[in-house]
Amino acid sequence: MEPLLTFAELASLMSSRAGVAIDAAELERRSDSAFTELGLDSLGLLGIVGELENRHGSVPSGAEMCRTPREFVELVNQSMPAGA
Amino acid sequence: MDSPTKRRTALTGMGVVAPNGVGADAFWKATKEGVSVLDPISREGCEHLPLKVAGEIRSFDPASVIEGRYLVQTDRFTHLAMAAADLALEDARLDTADGSPFAVGVVTATGSGGGEFGQHELQRLWGQGPRFVGPYQSIAWFYAASTGQISIRGGFKGPCGVVASDEAGGLDALAHARRGIRRGTDAMVVGAAEAPLAPYSIVCQLGYDELSRSADPARAYLPFSADACGFVPAEGGAMFVAEEESAARRRGAPVRAVVAGHGATFTGTAGWERSREGLARAVRTALEDAACAPEEVDVVFADALGVPEADRAEALAITDALGPHGSRVPVTAPKAGTGRAYCGTALLDTAAAVLAMEHGVVPPTPGVTDVCHDIALVTGLARTAELRTALVLSRGLMGSNSALVLRRGDAPT
Predict the structure, then answer these.
(1) Separation between Cα atoms, residue B136 and residue B93, nearest integer Å
(2) Cβ contact, residue pair A44, B73, below 8 Å
(3) Are residues B215 and B334 part of one domain?
(4) Cα distance from B295 to chain A (closest Cα, Å)?
(5) Rounded-to-integer distance, Cα A28 and Cα B192, Å
(6) What number is the ipTM of this complex?
(7) Which domain holds residue B311?
(8) How far is the alpha carbon of B137 from chain A, nearest alpha carbon, in Å?
């Protein structure tokens, strides 16, 4: 099954919603780094959660509290299988 | 530390982002030559509005000077302020990485905050629903946004503040920076820039009786003349690096001017004639603060609202405060060629005043030929003069009045 959120999609959202430019490969490589170290602040993550909610209807609670890209991608994908 | 009153505030860096030029050199060239850049508004969505003429900045590409995250997360008024702050820091050659981050503070003034960003998010709110409003709306529109983002971007952790005291707040911000330096801060990044030309922002201004409805750029803003019919709004502003004078000299930084005195009053909105007394009082307070006699004032940068009764009140205030010298001292209003960028206006006047003292040139008031008040308004061509002391005046539409006394710094090299 296709994951709902890939690192490439997250990288694209970081750029469009918060102006943080990072390529997908680098984001995946640094997926255990804190979002703040990657230049994404809490409002930026909130904006990404909002965008995913608008696309998919809902996002698991706590997503906006995730510290790292890996935590975020895993939480979103576990709770929201594609097509949900 | 010296006693607070001994800690004088020197301006060591200047950054200008104005309708008539980005960078102090371009700004001064156009200002000195009295070029008017007032023009029909070209912004999308403004075509049907009753405001026809403004001072737009058309030679500024924020993406070329500001990182992507700030482009997305902040409004145009903050982009302009950041660009001006960069220019000021570069001009001052202030090595901020070297010293304590707590030694540098930031203070800005703004009248309206981030209207363009706000409009975009409001369109999403009404077009798609509340879930489509981005979280950065919460900070991007805000009055304190430019101060906060300049502080974050530059790592300036000294005293930070924002002055929201109407248009004259531009001068009050310089006074606030001076207080910060008196209290022990080494340097302040200070100024104001505004971006009030988004359709939403313009609609917010349409209630001002003082706004010029003229569609003719050559006739829309003629302060102190019999044809005065209101003011033209503009975007832009200036930022400065202000430093404790002896600290600036120790590091070998040229002192471009000294902020010597300031006064502020409030006379409300019940008629422009009241600003006569308020402005005169602000001037007297500023002169006293600067230990400056009225005769020492070599040039006045007027508020020049372009509304007959406001112009009359200002002309009378100048002579009330300066006595007979008030009708002889050269008075100028370069803003007649750029429009009024709200809080940014007085900072552009401050920049022009510093440049005027450095070059020994009083720039003219663009477009004005006849003067119907008893002041020596400089029109036509710039005038050469030895300028040691400049007085900058500013009033706000809500009743604030401020005056700033600047003393010439080191001779330019």
Answers:
(1) 32
(2) yes
(3) no
(4) 54
(5) 41
(6) 0.89
(7) 261-406
(8) 10
